[in-house]
Amino acid sequence: MKTQRLDSVLDKMKADSIDQMLVSDPYAIFYLTGKMIHPGERLLALYLNVNGNHKMFINELFPVSEDLGVEMIWFNDTQNPIEIISKYIDKTGTIGVDKNWPSRFLLALMDLCKENKFVNSSYIIDTLRSSKDEEEKDLMRKASLLNDEAMGKLKALISDELTEKQLANKLSGIYEDLGADGFSFSPIIGFGPTGADPHGTPGDRKVNVGDAIILDIGCIKDHYCSDMTRTVFYKEVPQKAKEVFEIVLEANKRAIALVKPGVRFCDIDAAARDYITEKGYGKYFTHRTGHSIGLECHDMGDVSSVNTDCVEEGMIFSVEPGIYLPGEFGVRIEDLVLVTKDGHEILNHHDKEICIVG
Question: Of 215, 221, 194, 190, which Cα lies nearest the Cα of 295?
Fold first, then answer.
């Protein structure tokens, strides 16, 4: 167990009167133990108690050879893991559970522990994860540097012989050659009108002269995620598309310039959104300005108009304004931003100025 992180979790549990907690999120378990286990439909749970005596409940299908610093309680597919867990739980007080723990587990445990109060405790570890330590910052930098390289290689492959789907498929090989550990999310690649769907799926469309091309890509390296979007143009840039691109680029820069400890997330969002609205495209900016990122591409927290929390040192999030004109094209420019002691550091270094390919 990572002692300092565990101690912080236990301190927060005590402060919030949560006596016990079942951590089932694989990323949260990795954050505390250094071991990544993806259990699929099977139960996996790290049991924490403010009085100690922590346990890991794990199926024999997932062998663990290393010492994780916690007692392992093994079970197999013929046993009922909820009944096993219930034998170790104190039958009074509050039990915290993860927000995504399947109801088939939670409801069964609630039935066996009728005297306990159950609450969502995900925020405890999620909040700790939101501010990265020095090791995590370096891992995030490395993942983003790989993504920078990948973006350059991907742009060089764009031609009118490849469909969106075929170009996306080539990205897998690019990441493998660079030593990445796979995608942090399925790539979003859109040519021309396809790019007007902010989360469109690559299809069979081939690129045409003058198309705006959205390239939203990310990889994983040593468990940490990268994410970046660049919009480029095939062979030439139509005047309207150029104007929209420059608006989005300026919105991106304005929002990033505001980032420093103490600034509210909603004000960062407003810096981008208000500028796009001022230029007449407000209704075409249809999503939040950004999301937190780390072990998962979308960690808890976002850059949106309703998030009044203040930015803190060590946080990493995206700034990705966009304009999407149905039936025409879309433009999005995204960078990851690390909050430093007195400002920020942009983790992406791949050029984001206007670019013509092909």
Answer: 221
